[in-house]
Structure formats: structure tokens, C-alpha cells
TrEMBL record:
The keyword Ribonucleoprotein applies. This is RRM domain-containing protein. Residues 167-190 are annotated as: Disordered. Residues 175-186 have a biased composition (Basic and acidic residues). It comes from Crotalaria pallida.
Length: 301
């Protein structure tokens, strides 16, 4: 390959050949360096800008990838939760919304400033946690979209189950304090059964109080399909907001109406009977608690 250095008086004519041109004798004897063409300043700026942007994007991708390498596990971490919701209501609502994906072992949320707007839901298996993460990502929960990812650390309840649990002293007092409340809560749930008045939904005719003993009622004809659903067998602690979270995910939802004097029942209204039918088919038998599968029928008008 020919050097960049050549004598004046020669020009390249192709294929590495050179031919002389008419210059003065002094000019022809003076060597000089041929420099590669210099691109316009604007082009160099574009190249530099593109390089910087590419580097920034690559670094951002590395950070995102590093942050997204949390292994799949049975616990999901939720943030961007509404901080105005009371702690008990928040836990109950989270349990109600996520129990459709599988058995929930524990719902954790704390009042401390550091943990506001956050919660952890522990499932019995990884597949349940994965389905919940995928399907509920961005779900509007108390008017704020949930942000969900796998928890970075193993939950205590899972660690205790697999024998890897190590007590944390700073949480010991909190755990002991909450144990009594949890035991009482579990006892209350265990005492809940299917309301005898709704027993007909589970294979036996419902009964009514009768001086001589229980008396079977003649089953009534079901109401024809319409836009209002009648919900039965709800646990006493069910709130309007909890039901809204469940039924809002189906198109045409309008409102939930609960009867204060009659706990355990509610009415859910949709735009038309087709929309209400979709909700009924998907939520029939949904368990807000393990003891309370919902019974959904069309409301009588």
C-alpha cells in the first residue's frame, strides 16, 4: 500500500498508479503528507452525541438488568400503594384481590414511615406468585396503579417452613405483639362457616328456623339474567372497596351496594346482562377467605 507521503507533481489515477503534473522544479522536490479528509464539524458532533447516548443507554440497561435479576420466589413485593388506607383494611383488600391466584400464607404491611405504601404477599407456591405479578401489574388499587416485583429476601413464614429461618432481634418485639392479634384473627376465620341460609348453594336445601326443628324451604326459580348480580356468603368483614377491587376488573362495572343490616350479601351492578354474566362466570366460587366461596346469582327485579 502506498504511503501517505508523496512528492508534489504526482496525482493518483487509479489502481495505485501515479502520473506527473506540471509544477515548478522547486514544488516538485518538496515532500508533504496527504491527510485523510476531515469531516465537517457538524458530523463529528453527531458522532460524538450518538456515542454518548449509546453509552448512557447501555449503562442504564445494565442497571435495569441488574435490578431485574431477582429470582422468582413465593413472595411478591408491592409498592405505590395508597398511604391513606388503614392498615387492617389494606391487608384485607390485598388478600381479597390476590387470593384468586392461589393460597396466601401471609400479607405483610407496616405502619412505619419507611414502609408506607408498601406490602408483601406470600403465596404457597412460585407459580401463584408469578401469575399474580403478571396479571396484577399496574392494577388500579385504591386509585393508584400497583407496582409489583418479586421480593428480594425470603419471607419469614417460608424460611420457617424450610428450616432456614434466623430470628431478627429488631423484629422480635413486633412479631410477639402481632402474634396475639393473628391468633385471634385465625380463630375468627376458623369459626366462620357457610351461612345456613345459603346452604342450598352447596348441595342441600336451605333451612329456616322452625319451632319443631329445621324445615326445608322449597327452592325458588332463579331470576332471569339481568345486569345486577346478587352476591351471598361473604365474610362479615367484607367491605365495599374489597368487592369493587374484584368486580372492577370486568367491563361494564358500575357500582357495589351492600346492605348494612344484612352482612354477608351485596349487589353488584353492570351495564348490561352480558357484562354481568362474564363477571359471574369468572368470580363464581371465588374465596375471599378459605371458608367463604362466593355464591353469585342474578338479582331479582
Amino acid at each position: 500500500m502506498r504511503s501517505w507521503e508523496k512528492k508534489r507533481g504526482e496525482v493518483e489515477v487509479g489502481d495505485g498508479n501515479w502520473k506527473p503534473v506540471h509544477l515548478t522544479s522547486n514544488e516538485a522536490q518538496q515532500p508533504f503528507l496527504l491527510e485523510p479528509p476531515t469531516p465537517p464539524p457538524a458530523l463529528w458532533l453527531r458522532v460524538l452525541f450518538t456515542s454518548v447516548v449509546s453509552l448512557s443507554i447501555r449503562k442504564m440497561s445494565e442497571v435495569i438488568t441488574a435490578g431485574g435479576e431477582i429470582p422468582q420466589n413465593m413472595t411478591i413485593y408491592i409498592n405505590n400503594l395508597n398511604e391513606k388506607i388503614k392498615m387492617d383494611e389494606l391487608k384485607k383488600s390485598l388478600r381479597a384481590v390476590f387470593s384468586q391466584f392461589g393460597k396466601i400464607l401471609e400479607v405483610l404491611a407496616f405502619k412505619t414511615l419507611k414502609h408506607k405504601g408498601q406490602a408483601w404477599v406470600v403465596f404457597e407456591d412460585v407459580s401463584s406468585a408469578t401469575n399474580a405479578l403478571r396479571q396484577m401489574q399496574g392494577f388500579p388499587f385504591y386509585d393508584k396503579p400497583m407496582r409489583i416485583q418479586y421480593a428480594k429476601t425470603k419471607s419469614d413464614v417460608i424460611a420457617k417452613a424450610d428450616g432456614t429461618f434466623v430470628p431478627r432481634e429488631r423484629r422480635k418485639r413486633h412479631d410477639d405483639k402481632g402474634k396475639k392479634r393473628k391468633d385471634q384473627h385465625d380463630a375468627n376465620l376458623a369459626g366462620m362457616g357457610v351461612n345456613p341460609g345459603y346452604a342450598g348453594a352447596y348441595g342441600a336445601p336451605p333451612t329456616i328456623p322452625y319451632p319443631g326443628g329445621a324445615k326445608s324451604m322449597v327452592p325458588e326459580a332463579p331470576a332471569p339474567p339481568n345486569n345486577i348480580l346478587f352476591i351471598q356468603n361473604l365474610p362479615n368483614e367484607t367491605t365495599t372497596m374489597m368487592l369493587q377491587m374484584l368486580f372492577l376488573q370486568y367491563p361494564g362495572f358500575k357500582e357495589v351496594r351492600m346492605v348494612e343490616t344484612k352482612p354477608g350479601i351485596a349487589f353488584v351492578e353492570y351495564g348490561d346482562e352480558m357484562q354481568s354474566s362474564v363477571a359471574m362466570q369468572n368470580l363464581q366460587g371465588f374465596k375471599i377467605t378459605p371458608q367463604n366461596p362466593m355464591l353469585i346469582t342474578y338479582a331479582k327485579k
